[in-house]
Every structure is written in structure tokens, then in C-alpha cells.
Amino acid sequence: MKAEVYHAIHPSFGLKEQTFPKGFTHVADVEIPDLASSKESQIANLQAFAFQSTNHIQDSWTTNDSVFSITQNPRSTSVGDVIEIEGKYYEVASCGFEEIKVQLEEFEILVSRTVSSSQYIKVSAFDEKDAEEIALDVAGDVDFGTGDNPTYAIE
Fold it and tell me: N or C: which end of the chain has fewer CB within 10 A?
């Protein structure tokens, strides 16, 4: 299972309200082992594992085996940051985590293949950049009706 960790670009550490996803950046993906049996207990353990894995303890969290860092300037995950697990988003609170509702936007992204075929792919995402990444990820599952082993690009 994977968790995505988002840090506030200008962290307030819970002192002022921030609206996710604007003002946040995706900083890490954390591979999480199977930690518990009950769903409620499992989510709590997953949140704690992702939080701990993206905190500087003895070394930078970017050296943790379970973490794929996406940022050049890592800081520890703190109050006000967000962790996504199985499509649900949790804000780090001063004590524990609080589930938050996130409104995704709908995008139509024009994806082209190297063999001069294009198709619009509908995706839900935070923003256009995220939508383009998702569209490229799913392009391999879309029948463009031509060729093998294509590469894809955003037009």
C-alpha cells in the first residue's frame, strides 16, 4: 500500500487555516507494509507510519527505504500537512489526524502517440499538472487503435 505525503508550501503548523490542495506540494510516496487487521486500526497505523517515515529523526527521511522523495528541500512532516491513503486525505493535527474532504477538478487532456494519433482522456485531479501526469499514466490502457510499444506526450 502507498501513502502520498503533501507539505504546505508556507507551513503555518496549524496556526492558520490552509485549504488543500492549493498551497501544498507532493513531497513523497511512502510504501507501507501491512500493519494491522481491522480497517480502522490499519488506517491509524498507516497514518503514523507515513508521518514517522517523513520526519528527520536520526537522519534525513529521504534515506528511509520505504520513502520515495519527490522534493529537493525536505523538511519533516508537521501539523497542517496532508497524507493521502486509499483516496482519503488526512491533515496532520496537533494530536493525531483529521480526515478532510478534497474537491478534485475534471480535466480533458489531449494525449498523443508517437505514431500520430491523439485522443482526449478525462481525469479528475487537483490541477492541470497533476491531470497531465494521470493522463500519461492511463494512456497505456486507452485504445488508440495503432501500433505497439508507443510513447505518449501531452499536446
Answer: C
